[in-house]
């Protein structure tokens, strides 16, 4: 299991590096979009190449950061259902869901997209729009995104299995949305911790007498 965990952590490092690097493209796409809008409005000049570059950048952000989002546990969940379940039940749902849904879907997309992107590269496919960009890099981004997602899904499956079957501590980050949900629940019941254990009298009093945050 230790070898599998090392493999999973290696995948996590690659995913994190790619995700953090791609995050900077958000700034680039904002600059490109703003510049394109200003030039079009002020000088009445437009270019299909600049418009398509915006689409390519958005696609790169969405596809290449999907695996990082999974690794950071930031994908949307139905929190009203998830929070009502025990931690072990949620781990089992993740474990089975990765096997039954995520990995087969990501594997199928890689299998379908490889010849799709390869064919586009072989013919050096260009956009049908006048002055448009070359197309094959955009199609290659689709393939790269699902390859990253497939490997990250394997990593998450290994980590979830280690928690369920080998007693490893859970290293899954608490996503910002889930942390906010937990904070809201704690605020609704300040005298009761999330685990359901009664606080000592002194600790309870310190909580109830605490000054509200400004």
Key terms:
214 residues; mainly alpha; 9 helices; 0% strand; elongated; transmembrane
Task: Note down, in words, how this protein is organized.
Residues 30-159 form the Tripartite ATP-independent periplasmic transporters DctQ component domain. The chain has one domain (2-170). Helix content is 72%, strand content 0%. It has 9 helices and no strands. The termini are far apart.
Computed structural class: mainly alpha
Number of helices: 9
Mean pLDDT: 80
Cα shape: elongated
Query: Largest sheet, if any?
Result: none
Q: How many strand segments?
A: 0
* Strand composition percent: under 5%
Question: In sequence order, what are the helices and strands, one letter per element?
Answer: HHHHHHHHH
How many domain regions? 1
Helix coverage percent of residues? over 70%
Task: Outline the low-pLDDT stretches.
Answer: 189-214
In short:
The chain has 214 residues and is mostly helical. The protein contains 9 helices and no strands.
